[in-house]
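Query structure, 571 tokens:
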């Protein structure tokens, strides 16, 4: 016990120096049960002695144990916290307690509020738990921790009730406790909550899901790869539509969690491998590669990256994601696709796409980047600083200065978040397209992305004279909105806008009456030349003028899916 006593003394000294816990009467005595657990864990021993935090992204434990906790009366504790605080608490407590005795879960209530729930088999040492929470996030959160008892129930299920099903297109991602809520018309994917990243509740994971839905149904990839699989969310989604799925993660605990979720969903065509990035699959090729990487830009890498490898790569700037995409592009089969959500830096005095165009040229792939969100460097730093733990807050001013200096030195004025899609095409020149993403991305748009690639590549090779012989038709998702003003007793249109109601829901404004009339003639059977001719019957000499004025608009309408080229057979 001499070694344990020394560790307990050191831990207590750390807590006494850093915290002011009103509910701890005898810190050294109350910490001993937790310290005995810590003593057996080198990562936690380092945490206490060095006043740091374990460098890990943990996963659920009870399923790895092969047993389920009993349904006897149990005990719980809970506290409201920010996402960063919830992560800190999960890190510390999941390392400290045996997973057969304690279940720790976190659920998002709204964008800025999370609830951390702890369920105990036996009455907990409240002071020790409070002290550990304080070590993770500070005195305020520790003192706000509320303890109570729970009547005889399945307390694992109770800890997961906050994780509501995630709806994304045809898919409904749910835990076991919501299995009965999956309607027959939906594809249910059962993923039990874990600290491995990717249960579908995070916005980027859901964004990947929407980008893939309908894409995989349309393309039917034979061999797919999920890089950084976490708890296996995307791999489990892909498996029913692919012959074989390979899933990689650097964290062995995450791989165990993913394997369990695959078996739980009855999927046998997923192979899981532990390894860093693409190392386990060098030399292989895939029809589809997906990745939800640690994509956040970190202006001061040593602050966050070591603790949150699921969000931060450890490299400054956007280098990690760009290099990952470049390497992954070389593992694609012909006509294979790569999808990734990521962030990038945008230089002052240049188009926002300028750096990306240099980075993604020469890969043997067509490239599409859809920019979803843009913030100034100053705003990005401010939001980044908000993620500091309470213990790091005293350094906030210095870190803010360092972060701003980082962006200034690189001449970066804004950062953006968006979706990158690559398609390998080696038999012709490649094209790069950079767009603003439509505001409404609530429905699946994977099929629209495939159609976008096919249409734009087709149009890029099509001269204006050849385009006039095309037989386009109006998309079945096209609607027209008009604003009218009352003039001289008549409602006269003052503005017309085209909108798509499904897929990539783009809008097209400033539509003039001539273009509106032209669209009524585009039925998939009449050539564009004949449609222009029909609109110019009253003045046939005006046909070349009308065509020249509206042909660029027709190309744009085709590029964004308002019109469908007849020769491609798109639906």
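Result returned for the query:
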């Amino acid at each position: 016990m001499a070694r344990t006593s020394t560790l307990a003394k050191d831990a207590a000294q750390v807590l006494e120096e850093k915290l002011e816990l009103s509910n701890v009467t005898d810190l050294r005595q109350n910490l001993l049960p937790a310290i005995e657990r810590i003593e057996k864990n080198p990562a936690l021993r380092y945490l206490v002695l060095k006043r740091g935090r374990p460098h890990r992204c943990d996963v659920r434990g009870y399923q790895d144990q092969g047993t389920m906790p009993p349904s006897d009366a149990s005990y719980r504790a809970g506290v409201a916290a920010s996402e960063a605080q919830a992560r800190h608490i999960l890190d510390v407590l999941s390392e400290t307690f045996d997973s057969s005795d304690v279940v720790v879960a976190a659920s998002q209530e709204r964008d800025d509020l999370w609830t951390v729930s702890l369920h105990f088999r036996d009455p907990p040492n409240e002071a020790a738990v409070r002290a550990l929470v304080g070590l993770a996030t500070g005195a305020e959160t520790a003192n706000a921790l509320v303890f109570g008892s729970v009547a005889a129930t399945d307390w694992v299920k109770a800890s997961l009730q906050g994780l509501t099903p995630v709806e994304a297109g045809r898919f409904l991602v749910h835990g076991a406790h919501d299995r009965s809520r999956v309607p027959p018309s939906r594809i249910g994917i059962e993923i039990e909550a874990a600290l491995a990243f990717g249960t579908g509740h995070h916005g980027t994971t859901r964004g990947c899901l929407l980008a893939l839905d309908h894409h995989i149904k349309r393309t039917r990839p034979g061999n797919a790869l999920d890089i950084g699989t976490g708890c296996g969310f995307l791999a489990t989604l892909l498996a029913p539509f692919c012959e074989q799925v390979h899933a990689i993660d650097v964290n062995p605990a995450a791989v165990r969690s993913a394997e369990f979720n695959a078996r739980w969903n009855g999927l046998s065509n997923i192979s899981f491998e532990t390894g860093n990035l693409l190392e386990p699959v060098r030399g292989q090729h895939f029809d589809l590669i997906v990745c939800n990487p640690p994509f956040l830009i970190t202006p001061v890498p040593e602050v966050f990256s070591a603790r949150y490898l699921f969000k931060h790569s450890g490299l400054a700037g956007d280098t990690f994601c760009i290099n990952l995409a470049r390497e992954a592009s070389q593992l694609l089969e012909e006509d294979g696709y790569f999808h990734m959500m990521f962030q990038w830096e945008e230089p002052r005095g240049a188009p926002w796409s300028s750096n990306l165009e240099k980075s993604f040229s020469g890969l043997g792939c067509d490239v599409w980047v859809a920019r979803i969100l843009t913030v100034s460097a100053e705003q990005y730093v401010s939001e980044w600083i908000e993620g500091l733990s309470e213990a790091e807050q005293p350094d906030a001013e210095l870190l803010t200065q360092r972060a701003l200096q980082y962006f200034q030195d690189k001449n970066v004025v804004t950062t953006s978040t968006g979706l990158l899609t690559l398609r390998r095409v080696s038999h012709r020149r490649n094209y790069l397209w950079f767009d603003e993403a439509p505001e409404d991305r609530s429905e699946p748009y994977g099929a629209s992305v495939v159609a976008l690639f096919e249409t734009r590549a087709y149009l890029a090779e099509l001269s204006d004279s050849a385009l006039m012989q095309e037989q386009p038709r109006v998309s079945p998702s096209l609607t027209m909105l008009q604003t009218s003003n009352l003039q001289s007793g008549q409602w006269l249109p003052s503005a017309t806008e085209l909108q798509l109601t499904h897929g990539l829901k783009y809008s097209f404004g400033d539509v003039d009456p001539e273009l509106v009339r032209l669209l009524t003639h585009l039925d998939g059977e009449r050539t564009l030349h004949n449609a222009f001719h029909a609109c110019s019957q009253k003045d046939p000499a005006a046909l070349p003028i009308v065509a020249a004025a509206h042909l660029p608009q027709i190309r744009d309408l085709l590029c964004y899916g308002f019109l469908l080229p007849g020769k491609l057979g798109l639906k």
